[in-house]
Amino acid sequence: MNFISYCILDHLDGVNAVSTVVRLVLAVVIGGVIGLERGARSHPAGFRTHMLVCVGACLAMLTNEFVYENISQMADPTRLGAQVITGVGFLGVGTILVTGRHRIKGLTTAAGLWASACTGLALGIGYYSGAIIAAVLIFAALAFFPVIENRLLARSRSLELYIELESLKSVHALLEYLRGCGVSIFDTHFNSSAFVSGSVGLHLSLKLQKNTREILLKNIENHEGVLIVEEL
Fold first, then answer.
1. In 3D, which of 115, 124, 45, 46 has the Cα closest to residue 85?
2. Contact 19, 7 (CB under 8 A)
3. pLDDT tens digits for the chain (232 residues)?
4. Which whole-number Å values give the CA distances from 46 to 28, 40, 112, 130, in the listed order?
5. Could you give the domains of the chain?
6. How far, CA to CA in Å, does 126 sit from each of 17, 119, 120, 212?
7. Is the pTM of this model over 0.90?
8. Facing residues of 174 across strands?
9. What is the DSSP secondary-structure string of 129-158?
């Protein structure tokens, strides 16, 4: 049994039929697992996209190792991997959107694609333990860490808001109300696109004196002249 195990493990090193199958199948599984969480949340890059990225990166690294071992040892065994990382960066850009309210969406999905590609590269070169450990951590970061992040944000005294109001007079009244509540206003920025619809769009960076986040948000929503309130 030990001899058989040794023979199998020996075949996992280098580029051969056994290692190629194992690495590509692991890339399918790991890429798919990472993509499942994104797909379940209806993000543009989900199950199949992450799987294909991971398999493609794995194949690129396998090809690079094959060239190094069988064609020329003068070749750089990391060159194709570097190109994959650059290429996936462009792919990730396609998942990032900036809304009309200057809210950025898709950064986590883009990072997931990039991490999936890096995992595929690790599999392609035969770094199994690194790839599997990274896959577990990546999935945990996507699936479970948002709960921790939301709890930390709920306790934060910093607040970024996008608010649409009926008029400039309403803006002035709201700012006076916030100052009266002891809220520090660090930055105000008007959104010109909101003027087209007849309303006034305003980005605010606030610092609360104490943790009254939910109460303040509710009061702003109910304030006269306020049409939309969105936390950024």
1. 115
2. no
3. 454 554 555 566 777 888 888 889 999 999 888 888 777 766 666 788 888 889 999 998 888 888 888 787 777 777 888 888 888 887 777 776 666 555 667 778 888 888 899 999 999 888 888 899 999 888 888 888 777 766 766 677 778 888 888 888 888 998 888 888 888 888 887 876 655 566 788 888 888 877 677 788 888 888 888 888 887 7
4. 13, 8, 10, 23
5. 2-151 (no CATH), 156-231 (3.30.70.260)
6. 13, 11, 10, 52
7. no
8. none
9. HHHHHHHHHHHHHHHTHHHHHHHHHHH-SE
Q: Which two tokens stand for residue 208?
A: 């609360």
Token pair listed for 35: 């993509």
In one-letter notation, the amino acid at residue 161 is L
